[in-house]
């Protein structure tokens, strides 16, 4: 394991960057907000990262108390990585960073990779602070589910919701991009008919009545 690099500055921002300022670390946190992930799954959803760098970052995160590694019981018998409580405290940091970066997102470039669940964080910002519930989202890029207002457990996950969702949302790529860039509010998109809302839960009714 490589020794920890430090800015050697007595400043909380510098100390934070000592822990999460390396390339890929915060994106690994983004992926682990979905709950326990296998190394192969992380590598598949972080296109561009080398196996050596990913392994090094995961070891550093474990050493620094941001994540843990555990072995699944049979028949899984695979190792998974997951965030600790301290690692999950980075969620508002990622949310603020994502909001700050919206103006730099622009239109998708031909070289840009995309995964449906990467829209989970910007979408969660579109709900009001008092909203809570399980949302299933269908995009052209795929399907994922999102737990709005959740302070514990996975924030989101790939595929359909594991139980009956409180709301089902369907976007096209253009609308999803506009919401992700902050150009269009989620509730405005619902009102204009650019987002279809299904389901009979309180969250679906709240969105339809917005």
Please give a structural write-up.
It contains ten helices and eight strands. With 210 residues, it is of the alpha+beta class. A five-stranded mixed beta sheet has the order 6-5-4-7-8. The chain has a three-stranded antiparallel beta sheet with strand order 1-3-2. A hairpin with a 7-residue loop joins strand 5 and strand 6. The mean pLDDT is 92.
* Number of E-state strands: 8
Strand order of the largest sheet: 6-5-4-7-8
Distance between the termini: 52 Å
Largest sheet descriptor:
5 strands, mixed
- Mean pLDDT across every amino acid position: 92
Q: Which class best fits the helix and strand makeup?
A: alpha+beta
Instruction: Give the proportion of residues in helices.
Output: 25-40%
Low-confidence stretches: none
Radius of gyration: 18 Å
SS strand fraction: 15-25%
Instruction: List the secondary-structure elements in sequence, H or E.
Output: HHEHHEEHHHEEEEHHEH
**Oligomerization category of the chains in this entry:** single chain
Shape label: globular
Counting DSSP H or I runs of 4 or more residues, the number of helices is 10
């Amino acid at each position: 394991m490589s020794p920890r690099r430090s800015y050697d500055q007595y400043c909380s921002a510098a100390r934070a960057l000592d822990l999460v300022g390396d390339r890929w670390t915060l994106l690994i946190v983004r992926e682990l907000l979905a709950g326990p992930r296998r190394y192969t799954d992380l590598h598949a959803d972080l296109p561009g990262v080398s196996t050596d760098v990913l392994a090094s970052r995961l070891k550093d995160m474990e050493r620094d108390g941001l994540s843990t590694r555990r072995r699944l019981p049979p028949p899984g018998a695979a190792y998974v990585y997951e965030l600790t409580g301290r690692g999950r405290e980075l969620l508002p940091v990622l949310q603020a960073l994502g909001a700050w970066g919206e103006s730099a997102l622009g239109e998708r470039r031909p070289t840009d990779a995309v995964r449906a669940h990467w829209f989970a964080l910007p979408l969660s910002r579109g709900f009001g602070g008092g909203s809570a519930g399980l949302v299933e989202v269908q995009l052209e890029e795929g399907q994922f589910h999102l737990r709005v207002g959740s302070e514990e457990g996975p924030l989101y996950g790939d595929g359909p919701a594991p139980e009956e969702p409180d709301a089902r949302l369907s976007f096209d790529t253009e609308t999803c991009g506009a919401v992700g860039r902050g150009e269009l509010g989620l509730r405005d998109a619902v009102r204009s008919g650019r987002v279809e809302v299904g389901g009979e839960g309180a969250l679906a009714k709240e969105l339809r009545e917005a």
